[in-house]
Amino acid sequence: MNLFEHAHDKQIRKEAPLADRMRPRTIEEFVGQSHILAPGRLLRRAIQADQLSSLIFYGPPGTGKTTLARIIANTTKAEFLSINAVLSGIADIRKCIETAKKVRTEHQRHAVLFVDEVHRFNKAQQDALLPHVENGTVILIGATTENPYFEVNKALVSRSRIFQLQSLKSTEVEEIIEQALTDSERGFGDKQVNLAAEALRHLAHVAGGDARAALNALELAVLTSQADENDVLQITLEVAEESIQQRAVLYDKDGDAHFDTISAFIKSMRGSDPDAALFWMAKMVEAGEDPRFIFRRMLIFAGEDVGMADPQALGVVSSAAQAFDYVGMPEGRYHLAQACLYLSTAPKSNSAFAFFDAISVVRNEQADEVPDPLKDANRDGKAFGHGEGYLYPHAYRDHWVAQQYLPDVLQGRIFYQPTEQGFEASIQENVSRNREAQLAAFFSQTASEQSGGSIYWEARTLDSSGELLNEFRDHLTEWSEISRNTLALVLNAGEGLLLGEFLRRISEENVYALVESSNEKKILGTLFKKTTSGIEAKIAVDSSGCPASFEIADLRFERIVGRNVLQNHADKSGFLETLKPWISADGFFVFGETVPALGQRLSDLIPEELLEPDFRKKLKAAEKEIYLDEENVRSSWTPSTLCDELKGANWNIIRWQVKEYCIPTMIRTEQIEQWFPSHQNSPHSSYGQRLSAYFSPEQLNNLRETFRNEVAGTVVEWHSVSLFMQLNQK
């Protein structure tokens, strides 16, 4: 460098902005970033030992990224080369590489290449530079305001150590300002400047951790102020406010600040903190974020985080977004605020995530066969049975009927779990009750189908309609007279009908339940998880119905309740005797039993004119004998015979009621096939097989065809009789 070049450089440094002139020259002069530059820290030790590898400095503007790179070059006596990733091309990179090689050859010094905005490096620039970084020709120091793990080329990140620089504290910015006022060589130490304390605090605060912004404001204040009669420049608060009027909001709509701020906004609303939500939204609006982007995020939030706890939230936000489109800014900020406050203060529920559980099942399980009743009946429905047996919910009370909607292998699978928040709390019980009734109906139907049709015509008499199941549940629950702390046992609980209701009503004791199979236990364990009060269902597997399976010797129940428990036992009073040790002295039993012997006769489903009188009379007589067959434990009893049996066994009947029901029921073709199976080698006896003792094969075939042609596909009034009883020991 000749004399003229030296003088020119000196003049440039003298006329440079204050922020550039006041750049620290050594680590000791550097203010802030103590988390990486304090004595003993890794970066400081590496600089002092001159053992640096490539570095990337990541942080907001004005935190010292470029300055720190210059300090490293000065401290290590390295040649400092600088390029900008946006403004410099491959030719500039090659020129820097040649300079670095020359310095290394002629002066035995290494070179530091500082790349500003390194996240803007393209592949061609990277390919031109990387080989020389790897062989040590240059030490790369990159600077970026973006998260390098997301924005900087992966090849550069993998070869560099990353240090994050943080915004300076107000006290640190004040220290930098004071250095500028006292430094005679580079700052305003040769001038008499009186910076008021409140002006100092204002400059430091409004700069927002950006030392460059603070020094630029100070320089503007000093250069535009007039000295007083004592030749002193008075920098008052008013002057400082004019010099740096508005605090810049650090916000890049494509950078970290954008994603961090919207994340803070969403999490504040999710945490029901309206103050924080308003603050973060205000920061986005002030930084120029598109309000429609904010509305889109709030629309997502209304479905994801508020959801069914307040279904109106989606409408409120949607209306606010529409109003904003009509009104625009600045008045549209009212609608932004209203939507934000509504979501922040609304009850929260993320139950809509149930959809993603369903997606997971669809992707991972082969269980997509649509049940026949749900298939489209308009196309080939008659030929394939599509749509047959579908129960139209609007034809039933409360516009609901228990029928199967999920594929068989998924029956009992729970996706949607209503929370106890807001509106969802009001529907939680109804959803659970309907779900339990559907499960009970499915278990009843499955049990009959698995038996090969032997008791299907009886199981249908046991009835699996939602209306009757709800009636059963409500009646048994009422007669059980349970309180919050009743110790109760539910027998034959596999269908889940009673267990769910008891768990909702008993909040201070666990509810015990006996099921017949481990599969039933698994399904109920999924359906009835621990309640919010900590109460849970204690479920044991025992087909005999003995509470000893719980392995609690001194367990004494105040209520033992069940549906269709006694009808499975030939010696009904004898079964009750086995339960006596498990009932407390003041406890009692409550049972609800369907009475097949008094229920629907299949012969009554056929119109009068379609059967010869003598044939109908013979058919009715055969049905009566079949039902009263003593070998048929399920149907060979009546309420009167059971009452006599219990009284003879010295049981005290507290309450006794026989109820009759007529339930609209769709008779499906597959049900006819179960009553009259084509194969006669079933291990169980079907309705048709039972009748074979009374009728010829030709007569049975004609009867079967009559059922198929005249009964299948029709809705009938199905007659059902139920017995409810409340018992205790004498």
UniProtKB/TrEMBL annotation:
Q: Which CDD domains match?
A: AAA, HLD_clamp_RarA
| Statement: the UniProt record of this protein carries the keyword Nucleotide-binding | yes
Q: Which residues form the AAA+ ATPase domain?
A: 51-168
SMART domains on file? AAA
**GO MF term set:** ATP binding; ATP hydrolysis activity; DNA binding; enzyme activator activity; single-stranded DNA helicase activity
Q: Which InterPro entries would you find in this protein's record?
A: AAA+_ATPase, AAA_assoc_2, AAA_ATPase_RarA/MGS1/WRNIP1, ATPase_AAA_core, DNA_pol3_clamp-load_cplx_C, MgsA_C, P-loop_NTPase
Q: Does the keyword ATP-binding apply?
A: yes
Q: Which UniProt keywords apply?
A: ATP-binding, DNA replication, Nucleotide-binding
- Tell me the Gene Ontology biological-process terms attached to this UniProt entry: DNA synthesis involved in DNA repair; DNA-templated DNA replication
Identify the domain of life. Answer: Bacteria
Q: What role does it play?
A: DNA-dependent ATPase that plays important roles in cellular responses to stalled DNA replication processes.
Q: Which family does it belong to?
A: Belongs to the AAA ATPase family. RarA/MGS1/WRNIP1 subfamily.
Q: Which NCBIfam families match?
A: PRK13341.1-2, PRK13341.1-4
Name the chain's protein. Answer: Replication-associated recombination protein A
- Could you tell me which species this protein originates from? SAR324 cluster bacterium
